[in-house]
Amino acid sequence: MHADFPVVRWGRRNADVLVAWEPVNRQVLARVGSARTARTRTFAVVQGRSGTLVVHSVAPDAVDNDIGQLVADELVRPGLVGGPGAFERCFAGLVESTAASPNVAWHRFYVNTLRALHGEPDGSPRAGPIATFGQIYRHAMGLARGRSVLDVGSCFAFFPMLLAAGGEMRVTASDAHPGTVALGRRMAAELDLSVTFRAYDITCRPPFAAASFDTVTALHVLEHLPADKTVVALERLCRLGRQRVVVAVPLEQTPDPVYGHQQGFDLDRLTALAKRMPRWRGEAHEHLGGWLVLEPRIVRPRRVGG
Predict the structure, then answer these.
(1) What residues contact residue 228 under an 8 Å CB cut-off, 6+ apart?
(2) For residue 177, how many C-alpha atoms fall within 13 Å in the half-sphere facing its CB?
(3) What is the DSSP letter of 299?
(4) Domains in the chain and their CATH numbers?
């Protein structure tokens, strides 16, 4: 714990950021005083000698992937919490601070988010990042072909889990961060969803044989790469796919640093990238962002056992 902050319950520390849930720590803010405290609608932020204390009021039942917008808009964009990985540190801390056990907190986060991705029980529209990505995921599901899908850069693996829930495809999720892969694997097992998980950094040589999957997807991944890594990453995706490669990116003139974006895309650039793949033909289109759908000019044979 931070030496200059009172002891907190269920507090989660990541580097120099300590996150706590206000209802079980009402004495904390009173003890540090208001002079050092900056307040937003959801957070109280206290800067100390050894780091930053973030106290939030998000109820456990409200913890789902939409908290990312709160973290971005109230903490990171205003500069109340800064430094490399500020968004990720605050996000994970918020989730884990809402239960005595981090595993309980993450399980609730997954259940809440997947329920929201399936839509409101009364059929009413929902606003926010989950609603937007729900539409993106459904669009991607409609573009998938064949019996097997590899999703690259899966993060929490919501898209692979939605695919697996359909029960019609063999689904593999991958991410560059082993901790995220382990979390997704554990949550998929707890939720009885058949997803295979592999650690894979798209900038490195893939741990899969060529043409291992009918469809390869990379949804909101390429914008996180340096521009000079883009063509090589796309070549690797194409090497793994047999029938189709599906790429989705935000359409941004200026990359959003809050979410770690390093490059911007428009439809012309996506079309130009397709032309860099001589054995593939591709078309770009717009649907809540930019999409590039690539298909081989010659149908690739299915691997034995694939």
Answers:
(1) none
(2) 10
(3) P
(4) 12-104 (no CATH), 121-296 (3.40.50.150)
Structure tokens at 68: 């990312």
Contact between 140 and 159 under an 8 Å Cβ cutoff? The reply is: yes
> Does residue 38 contact residue 80 with C-beta atoms inside 8 Å?
yes
Torsion over CA of 73, 77, 81 and 84, rounded to 10 degrees? 120
Mind giving me the DSSP string for 67-121? HHHHIIIIIITTTSS-STTHHHHHHHHHHHTTSSSHHHHHHHHHHHHHHHHT--T
Mean pLDDT by 10 residues, the chain (306 residues): 68 91 85 78 90 95 97 97 94 97 97 90 69 97 97 98 94 97 98 97 93 97 97 97 97 96 98 97 97 89 57
Q: How far apart are CA 147 and CA 191, in angstroms?
A: 22
At 197, list the tokens.
């998980």
Q: What is the DSSP letter of 177?
A: -
Pick the closest to residue 153 from 138, 174, 184, 172 (CA basis).
174
Give residue 260's identity as a one-letter amino acid code.
G
* Residue count (the chain): 306
The SS3 call for residue 246 is strand
Alpha-carbon span 14 to 55, nearest angstrom: 14
- What is the predicted pLDDT for the residue at 9? 86
**Structural contact between residues 217 and 159, judged by C-beta atoms closer than 8 angstroms:** yes
Residue 124's Cβ-count burial label (10 Å; 0-12, 13-18, 19+) is exposed
Q: What is the pTM of this model?
A: 0.92
Q: Percentage helix, strand, coil, to 5, in the chain?
A: 40, 25, 40
Q: How do residues 211-264 score in pLDDT, each as one tens digit?
A: 999 999 999 999 999 999 999 999 999 999 999 999 999 999 999 999 999 999
Q: How many CB atoms lie within 10 A of CB 243?
A: 20
